[in-house]
Design goal:
By secondary structure, the chain is of the alpha/beta class. The chain has 13 helices and nine strands. Helix 4 runs parallel beside helix 6 and helix 9 (about 180-205) crosses helix 13.
């Protein structure tokens, strides 16, 4: 029987959203009712047993939910779901809570929070850092921004429960918009480093060196280039393309673009953000949107053109 459990409406059932929703459902503490605008995805989920309830609309997912959670792929999707005609901001009842796990521009995060507050609800901006496996195992690092939340003790019980189930660590980033800025800057930094790794491998190949020997050397040596990012991504760059999909290149391109925007808005010198964004845009234009994000290496690697 699940009627006594707190109902969670979960909107956005892509790879990360699905992992988060499953983790909450399988905890036995929540009754998750999920919805995704992609009807093909909904049909595939409906054919899979042992997951959670599916709703035929956002209305049904949100109705009577103590909390409505979203994990969406783009700023446009977040704006439509929250602030568009008939969006969540128009459907919420006073006292409902919303949580957005998406990576969005900070201005949109602030606007979303204001629209939810105007409806009598409370909004929590909670972008996540980590892999799909981390989400499934409750090992994400979660960022958090919300009005009147400055420390852990300020978290409502429901939010504290969700954080404890999904994350092994979390950071209260500051006022609304701060969590989104932290997440975008962190992603942007990582993607700049990813392009540098791809460039180094390309230089090795163009110099007639073995890329595998180079990757093995860096991964074993105590040099400054031996980082977790290098060890996790460089082997995928030299492996046959398509063997593993860790994150879609289109998502990396979006995040790199957001980083470039924030960098320019800050007024700080930002040479690398512009270059990284341009490289991912070039990779998308080359037809790599649905490839793994490590395949940006094809722009550098003479053996992959």
């Amino acid at each position: 029987m699940t009627e006594h459990l707190t109902k969670i409406g979960f909107i956005g059932l892509g790879s990360m959203g699905l992992a988060l929703a499953l983790r909450l459902e399988q905890s036995g503490k929540f009754r998750v009712v999920g919805y995704d605008r992609d009807q093909d995805r909904m049909k595939r989920l409906a054919a899979t047993e042992g997951r959670f309830e599916l709703a035929s609309s956002i209305d049904i997912a949100a109705n009577d939910s103590r909390c409505v959670m979203t994990c969406l792929p783009s700023a446009e999707a977040v704006h439509e779901v929250y602030c568009g005609p008939g969006g969540l901001a128009d459907r919420l009842i006073p006292g409902q809570t919303t949580i957005d796990f998406s990576t969005v521009p900070p201005e949109l995060a602030v606007e979303t929070g204001k629209r939810v507050a105007a409806a009598g609800g409370a909004h929590f901006e909670m972008p996540v850092v980590g892999s799909i496996r981390d989400a499934a195992e409750g090992k994400l690092h979660m960022l958090l921004s919300a009005t009147d939340v400055a420390q852990k003790d300020d978290l409502p019980d429901l939010i504290a429960e969700v954080v404890s189930l999904l994350a092994s660590a979390f950071t209260i980033a500051g006022p609304p918009g701060a969590a989104s800025r932290f997440k975008i800057i962190q992603n942007g930094l990582g993607l700049v480093q990813l392009n540098a790794i791809a460039e180094a491998i390309g230089i090795c190949e163009a110099s007639g060196l073995s890329s595998k020997a180079f990757v093995d050397f860096v991964s074993a040596a105590p040099g400054m280039a031996n980082t977790p990012l290098f060890r996790n991504t460089a082997p995928l760059m030299i492996a046959p393309a398509g063997e593993e999909l860790t994150a879609r290149l289109a998502i990396a391109a979006k995040d790199s673009h957001l980083y470039n925007i924030i960098a320019k808005q800050s007024g700080a010198r930002s040479n690398f953000s512009s270059l990284s964004s341009a490289l991912f845009a070039e990779a998308e234009a080359s037809g790599l949107s649905n490839a793994d994000f490590t395949q940006v290496c094809r722009l550098f690697s003479v053996g992959r053109h």
